[in-house]
Amino acid sequence: MDNSFWALVGLILFFVIIFYVRGPQKVGKTLDDRAVRIRQEIEEARELKEEAKQQLAEYQRRRREAEVEAQDILAAAKREAALMLEDAQRRNEEYITRRTAMAEAKIAQAETDAIAEVRASAVDLAVEAAAKILAERQAAEGGRFINESIAAVRKNLN
């Protein structure tokens, strides 16, 4: 009885014990359970992939909506800026018109004041000249006639 015989006996006993404790059934059951678990994980991964695709589509839709909204806001801001610029130009033109009208009115008033001043000076000079002339002519008649004449000239010239 050599070692090969005892190795064969040990091997046969090993197989008998494995069949007795139902080893192949347990291995098969373990492999089947593992296959079921792998199928479940694959199905769960597919569901997660679909959910991720849906979320991606939703985020892309939101991004497009946000871009459209940003463009609308930008367009509205440009329109508002243009309106503000037009309003500022209109107000500037009105301001210039008012200032021009005020300057023209001041010039006209100064012109009127200058004419009135020249007339007043002319009247005063005329009165003085008339008084001098009358004084020379009527030196003998007295001061009454001169005073009456000066008053009449002042009344007529003013």
Automatic annotation (TrEMBL):
Pfam families: ATP-synt_B. It is a single-pass membrane protein. GO terms for cellular component: plasma membrane; proton-transporting ATP synthase complex. It comes from the Bacteria. It is found in: Cell inner membrane; Cell membrane. GO terms for molecular function: proton-transporting ATP synthase activity, rotational mechanism; proton-transporting ATPase activity, rotational mechanism. Residues 31-105 form a coiled coil. Keywords: ATP synthesis, Cell membrane, CF(0), Coiled coil, Hydrogen ion transport, Ion transport, Membrane, Transmembrane, Transmembrane helix, Transport. F(1)F(0) ATP synthase produces ATP from ADP in the presence of a proton or sodium gradient. F-type ATPases consist of two structural domains, F(1) containing the extramembraneous catalytic core and F(0) containing the membrane proton channel, linked together by a central stalk and a peripheral stalk. During catalysis, ATP synthesis in the catalytic domain of F(1) is coupled via a rotary mechanism of the central stalk subunits to proton translocation. Component of the F(0) channel, it forms part of the peripheral stalk, linking F(1) to F(0). The b'-subunit is a diverged and duplicated form of b found in plants and photosynthetic bacteria. HAMAP family: ATP_synth_b_bprime (MF_01398). Belongs to the ATPase B chain family. This is ATP synthase subunit b.
